[in-house]
Design brief:
Layout (H helix, E strand, L loop, with lengths): L8 H13 L2 H11 L4 H12 L1 E2 L6 H13 L6 E6 L6 E4 L8 E6 H6 L2 H16 L2 H11 L8 H25 L3 H13 L10 H17 L11 H12 L2 H7 L8 H14 L6 H18 L7 H11 L6 H11 L2 H15 L4 H13 L6 H13 L4 H15 L7
Helix pairs in contact: 1-8, 4-6, 6-8, 6-9, 8-11, 9-11, 10-11, 11-13, 14-15, 14-16, 14-17, 14-18, 15-18, 18-19, 18-20, 19-20
Length: about 425
């Protein structure tokens, strides 16, 4: 069965985009030729030396359980399973770096001690899901290209972050297939979040779901910073419930070829909206619209919007938005660039008058980004400065400061 068809559509789309963007096929080929000692090889040495490798002879119970899940998911590649002495309830999967090597799944002893067999099946199924989807491979290549995560460009960082979250939701589906008991899957999340044994507190499955729905509603209405690499548990639970009730899962359970489920897609899109939110500030909403519209106005003042100008606009917007290109294109094609500019600028300056200086500096920066200065751009900047309540002298001084600080003439122009 092609279990790849159960993946979340946006997760698959982003995975392909990221793989192509970092030239994944070429880099992977070069790494194999170069025989570079990589992250996974280091982990292999570490795990072999300090962790317990699960074998049929030494741990037949765990070995059989892990390989039962592997067989259920019809994953044919080799996997070496390790247990590490660590109290943290955590596990991870590493894709094989070279042909002939086994993939790796490590489970902390804290998980083995706290989870029963069905809960462990969900966890192992989840980790194998990262291997089935090839997301573990993309993660490995991203770590190679960006060994220091703080060096990832902002425009790319948020896209990777969203993909990481969606890949967790996709992996949860594989976990559910491995142990198709919603109650067991949810008791897993309960243990992960609380550290408590459900039996110790007379865990009420239905009450937990109701409380979870209220939490998801809260996050929909109060969207704030969302920069962690994993989606919050209430969203994972809501997504898993939707999958368990879907015709897509019924196809999988019946061993039929999975087909797209539009209702499930709508439910996941609704949850994805929460994951895509980086800010709940009304001012940030106006700032985003301002940067897109103001940037387009300045960039188009000379009748030509350059690649450098677009990159400058999107580079700033990407700090608070995952898909800035889509917004810029929507505003550009709306035919209402000036209206959006006036509305957003007016809202910002009305609420925070001191911000007009930084708004104006942004526009000047866009004008300089293509390494050319056009009279039409300067004329527009003076008009905008006046509407912002700046004197012509103030505007001239700010333009001059930006030229001195940023302008680099294009000698090939």
């Amino acid at each position: 069965m092609n279990y790849d068809l159960i993946r979340i559509p946006l997760e698959k789309e982003l995975a392909h985009q990221l793989y192509d963007l970092i030239e994944g096929d070429i880099i992977d080929m070069v790494l194999k030729e170069a025989k570079i000692e990589r992250f996974e090889n280091e982990w292999k040495l570490l795990l072999e030396g300090h962790s317990f490798k699960v074998t049929k002879e030494l741990a037949p119970g765990l070995y059989d359980l892990f390989h039962e899940v592997k067989d259920t998911l019809e994953f044919e590649e080799d996997i070496d399973f390790y247990v590490t002495n660590a109290p943290e309830v955590n596990a991870f999967a590493l894709s094989a770096a070279e042909e002939g090597e086994a993939n790796i799944i490590n489970i902390n002893s804290g998980l083995i001690e706290r989870m029963d067999d069905d809960e462990l099946r969900f966890i192992i199924g989840h980790e194998i899901g990262h291997l089935v989807s090839k997301n573990a491979t993309i993660s490995r290549l991203i770590r190679f290209v960006f060994p220091e995560s703080n060096k990832i460009p902002v425009l790319l960082y948020h896209k990777i972050n969203l993909w990481n979250k969606l890949s967790e939701l996709t992996a949860d589906r594989y976990g559910f297939i491995a142990t198709p008991s919603l109650e067991k899957c949810l008791s897993n999340f309960f243990k992960l979040s609380s550290g408590l044994d459900p039996q110790r507190i007379n865990f009420d499955f239905k009450a937990y779901l109701e409380a979870n729905d209220r939490i998801v509603t809260y996050f929909k209405e109060n969207r704030g910073q969302n920069l962690s690499t994993h989606p919050i548990n209430p969203i994972r639970i809501k997504a898993l419930v939707a999958f368990s009730e879907s015709s897509l899962y019924l196809d999988v359970a019946k061993k039929a070829d999975p087909k797209e489920d539009e209702i499930l897609t709508e439910k996941i899109d609704d949850l994805t909206g929460i994951l895509m939110t980086l800010t709940s500030s009304e001012l940030d909403y106006h700032r985003i619209n301002f940067m897109a519209s103001a940037g387009l106005l300045v960039a188009g003042a000379d009748d030509e919007i350059t690649k450098q100008e677009v990159e400058r606009i999107m580079g700033i917007i990407s700090r608070v938005m995952i898909f800035p290109k889509q917004l810029v294109e929507e505003i550009h094609n709306s035919g209402k660039v000036m209206d959006i500019f006036n509305t957003s600028a007016g809202a910002i300056i009305n609420q925070n008058p001191g911000e007009r200086y930084s708004l104006f500096e942004f526009m000047v920066g866009v004008a300089m980004s293509d390494r050319q200065i056009f009279q039409q751009e300067i004329d527009l900047l003076y008009i905008v400065a006046e509407s912002f309540g700046l004197t012509r002298k103030e505007a001239a001084q700010m333009i001059a400061q930006t030229i001195q600080r940023e302008f680099m003439p294009d000698i090939y122009a």
